[in-house]
Fold:
Amino acid sequence: MDHRIWSIVVAAGSGQRYGAAKQFEPLAGARVVDHSLAVAARHSDGVVVVVPPGEPVPDALRADVVVEGGATRSESVRRGLAAVPGDATIVLVHDAARPAASDALFRRVVDAVLGGAAVAVPAIEVADTIRHRDGGVVDRAELLAVQTPQGFDAAALRAAHANGGEATDDASLVEARGGTVVTVAGERTNIKITEPADLVVAAQTLGTSGSSAAPPPSALRLRVGNGFDIHRFSDDPDRVLVLGGVTFEGARGLHGHSDADVVAHACSEALLGAVGRGDLGSHFPDTDERWRGANSMELLAEVVRIVAADGMVALNIDCSVIAESPKLAPRRHEMEAALSAVVGAPVSVKGRRAEGIGGLGRREGIAAMATALLTGAGG
Structure:
């Protein structure tokens, strides 16, 4: 029997956890989705790509068919499946956010379906200890982490989606109808992009494997950036003090166009300096009313995305705050946790007094200095 293989590359997510549509982020000279489309095309007679609904279609998507996704992943796959020709006998479903899936992995999945499996999924053993949120450790020997591409007998996949249904992957829908799921060896390098640091790992994998949709990065690089910010205290009694994303109730606020979070600003300046992208004011000028009262942690998150677009991620940031008041030590861990969550890497915060020297010593304002270490792939 002659088999016709079609792939559905699901690129319809909004990237809520990442903070942007991660499938369209730059990666190794192309976009994340371009790498996923390239490997799918090498193992298919045709490719359908499912894009975010209600958004302009991204340029130059190398697919045979482009369709809009739905409100859920399952609905997006159904819309993609509707565009697959009726004579397709095997359908592969692949997440666009897994750009480092290898040719060998695609071949293993296809071979399993050609061998008679209704569903074939790549899976890897769980290496970490897994705990329930309410306590207790899960026996990881009983667990497998499932990846994509997932391969299906086309008729089985169509039947599983015929009456709707929702699941985090399509194999679960087929299994719910009595289908048997066969596992093949997955790849630890086949990571799903969920945060900016994953782009560096994926770039290194693509460069090593030679399977990139673009020229591979040449080498690992390290960059260091320094940041500084200072704000005077505000005369507005309603102005609140925000440092490192933490509000200090009852403390005198700082004057500024945004929320004047000097800690978040210094961290942002350090990141931008490391990649040579100017300063915070060049991206969020105080002459632009859009940034009046802006949450500086949101600006920091945007800076992290700017840095990631250059193929770089933070390894750590160290920040020193110079202030006579308030006392930072009781809230230091809160600031570190908030900043680290946004940056995607450890951020340490230290408080220092100015010992009565200068304007800071006279309690006229607060200053912060930060040093960031970044890593990335490429020259």
About this structure: Residues 196-209 form the longest helix (14 residues). The first strand starts at residue 5 and ends at 10. The radius of gyration is 25 Å. DSSP finds eleven helices and 18 strands in the chain.
